[in-house]
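A sample copied in:

***
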Amino acid sequence: MTYDEIELNALSSLDALNVAAIRPQLFAPPFSTAALRDDELREKLLRDVEQNAARKANFRARLLFEKNELSPASSRRFELEEELRELDEELARERLRAQWLELSATKAGRQTLLEIEEAPLHSLQTPRHEARITLGLQRGFGGPTHSMGEVEKFVQDYLTTNGHLWSVAISATRLVYSSSKSAGIEDGAEIGLINDPRFPASPDDFRARALELALALREKFGQERLCLVLTNEILMLEAPNASTAFDVPTTAETRRPQRASENIPD
């Protein structure tokens, strides 16, 4: 992967970052507009930013090469994917800083930055509804392991095909499970949904969307069961042919997980 490709990937990952959270980092000392009226200081900061970005880009290329040499089931591969995601965000921030420093080199650019810095942050509010889907990447018990890339592509295609305007975050995770019949560790994915203020939904609609996506993921990736964590409840969604590899305690506080063929509680 070339430096330009790494830089492009870093910038594209910026879409997933919170701009309101990044802005204070860009305008805080030593990146304050007042300090950047000093040409010598600005040039020094720009050199530092470019050197940092180059080092991180080279490090990212080495990690990517190492990751591609590992099997999908390797725990080291999971660790590298996490490091690569963090580096993508750091590279995006470095690129933003460089653009800001270059813009501040002119009087007109500094005026533009002052207007941005002094402008109020606009915000939208909506009732809080959240959902988190925990998905194992191994197909069934002992089957092949899917990649994070497959999960990301499926979710993206799912949203596009169904015309959904959602905010969905996908991250790698590790699932540690244990019962009297089975125990182990498995690579997994966590898919998070929020009630995006740009596309607000009622509680019932949001719940239905999350449940629909969870069932689609369970079927696509051959999971016998997966968990859907909502704001006020947790659902374990079982496939009709799910095995009994796990104990399900029978207590007043615990109900048997619902199967897909049964009615999901309202």
